[in-house]
Design goal:
The complex is a heterodimer.
Chain A: H1 5-12, E1 27-34, E2 39-47, E3 54-62, H2 65-78, H3 83-87, H4 91-98, H5 105-126, H6 133-138
Antiparallel strand pairs in A: 1-2, 2-3
Chain B: H1 42-45, H2 56-70, H3 80-101, H4 103-115, H5 127-145, H6 150-190, H7 197-237
Helix pairs in contact in B: 2-3, 3-4, 4-7, 5-6, 5-7, 6-7
The chains are: A alpha+beta, B mainly alpha.
Chain lengths: 140, 239
């Protein structure tokens, strides 16, 4: 199966690879995994306390080219977005942008899950150890 | 051995002599073996109730008994139609036995049976498992950058320890299946009708938990294989 040019570009030059300090209060961390392919993805956001804007986003993914490209693209899109805007990022947008074939759609789902998990973690930290409002709304 | 339920009228008549069948396996009148009806699942064919706690000795005895009925070797001189039935039934019987014998495949089978076409294995794993797998992946990545120094030995030691932990976790999840099996059998055993909505809800809840356990097991199995391959690759590179 051939990868699209955009996937290859993100794969060869992944944006924002790395880690943020997960202990910091304004850093949200999401780690998600996919049992069927064994992939695992970590995505972190650093949010400006005053503006609620994502100042920095980092990822590290162990997986196939599409998984790497999906998370790389996600960090690009996250930067400069407010938390509410970030919640709007959908896996289909990633699929379209990267021209992912049907067998690789799960990679984009993984990236969306990672974004949601990172935001949930951030919100949880902001609320102290109280309940996490995002996760509750999110339940299927 | 109780006999599978005959729901379809066409299956309760012998394909050869059209007489009423007393056993679903063989016609007593013309002694021809009978085809495995499509709506007969593995439990039914083996004469078992749909329960997940299975006595493996009993399962094996049933399998062997039926194998002796359908073994294709016994039909080498028979007409083609009967040879064909023997071949199909024997193959399906082997599959049925292998599927029900193993707890994981048994769980997978009941999920397919209960949820039918709409069943898709879950793609989610618990966050703590994803985190632990991420850490292991980082260790393995570290290993490929070190070579032959003290740090490499440290990483190898850490990886071996993680592998041990993951093994334990994987084993614990297999035992978790036993808990789900017991819960399933209890609900089915106590229900007057398995189709009653409150019963279905309970069953589906147990099935979801089972699905989660299977996903975690699959993920763990993959990462453990991965660690093994990495450690082996590393030791051969060193020589």
């Amino acid at each position: 199966m051939a990868y699209s040019e955009k996937v290859i570009d993100h794969y060869n030059q992944p944006r924002n690879v790395g880690s943020l300090d997960k202990k910091e209060k304004n850093v949200g961390t999401g780690i998600v995994g996919a049992p069927e392919c064994g992939d695992v993805m970590k995505l972190q956001i650093k949010v400006n306390d005053k503006t609620g804007v994502v100042e920095d986003a980092k990822f590290k993914t162990f997986g196939c080219g599409s998984a790497i490209a999906s998370s790389s693209l996600a960090t690009e899109w996250l930067r400069g977005k407010t938390i509410d805007e970030a919640m709007e990022i959908k896996n289909v947008d990633i699929v379209n942008e990267l021209s992912l074939p049907p067998v690789k759609i799960h990679c984009s789902v993984l990236a969306e899950d990672a974004i949601k998990a990172a935001i949930a973690d951030y919100k949880k930290k902001q609320n102290g150890n109280g309940v996490d409002p995002v996760r509750e709304d999110d339940q299927e | 051995m109780s006999t599978p339920k005959q729901t379809d009228q066409s299956h309760s008549l012998c394909w050869n002599c059209h007489s009423e069948l007393e056993s679903p396996y063989k016609c007593v009148r013309c002694v021809k073996i009978q085809p495995w009806a499509d709506d007969t699942d593995y439990f039914q064919f083996l004469g078992l109730p749909r329960r997940l706690q299975i006595d493996l000795d009993d399962l094996e005895a049933r399998f062997l008994k039926l194998s002796r009925i359908f073994h294709p070797d016994f039909f080498q001189e028979s007409e083609f139609a009967e040879q064909d039935i023997a071949l199909v039934n024997a193959a399906r019987l082997n599959k049925a036995y292998a599927t029900l014998k193993d707890r994981e495949t048994r769980a997978g089978y009941i999920l397919e049976l209960e949820l039918g076409e709409k069943y898709r294995p879950t793609k989610n794993v618990p966050p703590e498992l994803a985190t632990s797998i991420f850490e292991v992946q980082e260790l393995m990545a570290e290993l490929s950058t070190h070579s032959g120094n003290a740090a490499e030995q440290e990483t190898i030691k850490a990886l071996k320890a993680r592998k041990e932990e993951l093994h334990k976790d994987s084993h614990a999840r297999l035992e978790e299946l036993d808990v789900h099996f017991a819960a399933y059998d209890k609900v089915i055993g106590a229900a007057t009708s398995p189709f009653e909505p409150s019963v279905r809800r309970k069953i589906e809840e147990i099935l979801r938990a089972m699905d989660q356990t299977l996903a975690a097991r699959l993920y763990l199995k993959r990462i453990i294989q991965n660690i093994t391959a990495t450690l082996e690759g590393n030791s051969t590179n060193g020589h």
